[in-house]
Amino acid sequence: MDTMRERFTAVASRLLDEDPRLAVVLAVISSDRFREAAKAHPDRVIDVGIREQLLVSAAGGLALAGMRPIVHTFASFLVERPFEQVKLDLGHQGVGAVLVSAGGSYDIAAGGRTHQAPGDVALLDTLEGWTVHVPGHPDEAEALLRHAAADGDRRVYVRLSEHANREPLPVTPGSFQVVREGRAGVVLAVGPMLDAAREATEGLEVTVLYATTVRPFDGEGLRAAVGRSGTADVVLVEPYLAGTSAPFVDEALVDLEHRVLGIGTAREELRRYGTWAEHVAAHGLDANGLRGRISAFLR
Amino acid sequence: MTSTRTFYDYAGLERLMSLMSGDEKHGPAATSTLDVLWVLYDRVLRVAPDTADDPCRDRFLLSKGHGPMAYYAVLAAKGFIPEEWLYHFAAFDSPLGHHPDRTLVPGAEIGSGSLGHGLPIAVGTALGLRAQGRDQARTWVLVGDAEMDEGSNHEAVAFAGAVGLEGLHVVAVDNASATYGWRGGLASRFAAEGWSAVTVDGRDHQALYQAFTAPHPGRPHAVIARVEPKYV
C-alpha cells in the first residue's frame, strides 16, 4: 500500500492538470516528488527553499491573486513555525488555502521532538474558520484532498500520517460515521486511531464513531449517537494532543450531564527515538493501552 | 459607502492628514511615506477606485502598516475612500484603524501591522499574477528600513531574486530607524540577491518617479527612498 504522503503527491500532481486555479507551494519537503508536475506547470509548482514563513505568506499572496494554493511540508514547519503567517496571511487577509501536512505527532519518531507536531490541531483551534481533515487511509486522504481542493476558498488543513488503518471507509466530509452501536457509551475514533479503537472495544457494548473531519466538529452526529446509546459517556481517541476535541464534546452536550475521556498523545515530551509504532504504544494509543483506559472509564 | 468622492492633489494631503491627527502644524514632511505614496498613486500605479477589483490592476501592498495616516490621506485624495471617514480615524466603528484592514478599506490590498508580512505576501501575489498570465499587472510593496530587520523579509528577498520575479517591486522608505542600521546601505542587500536596486531622495518626486519606472528585465526591483532620519 502507498502512504498518504505518496498518494498526496500523486493526486495533487493530477489536480494541477485538471484545475488551472491550483498551485502547489513547497519548502523542499516532497519537492522531488513533484518534479514531473513542475515540468508540466512551472509557474504552479513553487518551491521556496527552506523558508517556511515565506511558504505560508506566499500562499496568502497567491490566494489574493485569485489562486487556490496547496501548501505542504511537515506539520511542525507548516503550522507551528509559521503560525503567525497562518493567522495573519491567510485568516486575517480573509483568504483560503489547503495546508497539507506530513509527519503528524509521531511519524518521524527517530527525528525527535523537532519533527513532531502533536499540537497542530489545538493551535488551529485558536483561529476562525479552519476545516480539519484527518484521514485514516490513503484512499480517504485522496477523497479528502480532492474535496479540499474544490472546497471554494475555505481554509482547510489535511493532516496526513504514516499511521493508517488496514481498510478505508467511504468518506463523508464533515460528518462522523457510525461504525457500530452499543449502550455503554460512545467512542469517537479519529483517522488512524480507528483500527486500535475497534480492537480495544471488542466485546464492549459501546458505540464507535469514526471521524475524518474533526473541524467543524460534528456535534449533531455525536449528540445523536449519544442519544441512541443512552449513555452520555464519551471517549475521544485522537492521534494528537490528548483532549484537543474535548471542548467541542462539551459544547455538543452542554445541556446533558456527561463525562469525557480525552485520549491522545501526552503533553510530556517523550524523549525516545525508534519507530512511530513504538511511540503509539508509548503514548498508550495501541489497542492494549486503549482497552485499559476505556474500560476503566466506562461504567 | 454613501458619500460622494472628492479628488485632491498633493497640496490637499496636509489638510486630509490633519483631519486624522487633529494637528495643523505637522506638514507632509512629518510622515516618511507621504511622497512615496503620492508619486506611486498619482503617476505609477494602474489602479483607481473603479478598477480596485480588476484582476489585472496593479497591486500596492502597504507592509509597514504603522502610521497609516499618509496612506489613508492618499486613498481619500484619489477617491478610494470618502473624506468623512478620516474624521473618525481609529474610532470603534471606523473602517480606518492604526493598522489597515483590507476587508474594511476599499483599495487596501492587505491588512498589515505585524511587520515582515507584506513583502512575503507580495512574492505570492506576483507569482500568482504570473501564473495566470497577468504579466502586465505589477505588484508593489512598501516596507520600512527598520521593518527589514524581520527575518521573513530576507526569505522573500533571497527567493524573489533567485527566481527573477520581475513583477515584484519594493519601495523601502529609509528613515534610518533600524536599530543597528544597514551597513553598506539597504540597497546592497537587494543587489546581493540579484535585484535591480536604486537609492533616491524620498522627497524628490521626479527622482522617485524615475526610480519607480526604471526598466529591470528579468529581475525584481527595489527603490530605497531615503528621507530625514527618524531620530536626530
UniProtKB/TrEMBL annotation, chain A:
Transketolase-like pyrimidine-binding domain sequence ranges: 2-167
Gene3D superfamilies from the UniProt entry: 3.40.50.920, 3.40.50.970
InterPro entries documented for this protein: PDH/Transketolase, THDP-binding, Transketo_C/PFOR_II, Transketolase-like_Pyr-bd
Source domain of life: Bacteria
PANTHER family reported for this sequence: PYRUVATE DEHYDROGENASE E1 COMPONENT, TRANSKETOLASE-LIKE PYRIMIDINE-BINDING DOMAIN-CONTAINING PROTEIN
Protein name, per record: Transketolase
Organism, as annotated: Streptomyces humicola
From TrEMBL, chain B:
Lineage top rank: taxon: Bacteria
Residue span, Transketolase N-terminal domain: 26-214
PANTHER family documented for this protein: TRANSKETOLASE, TRANSKETOLASE N-TERMINAL SECTION-RELATED
Protein name according to UniProt: Thiamine pyrophosphate-dependent enzyme
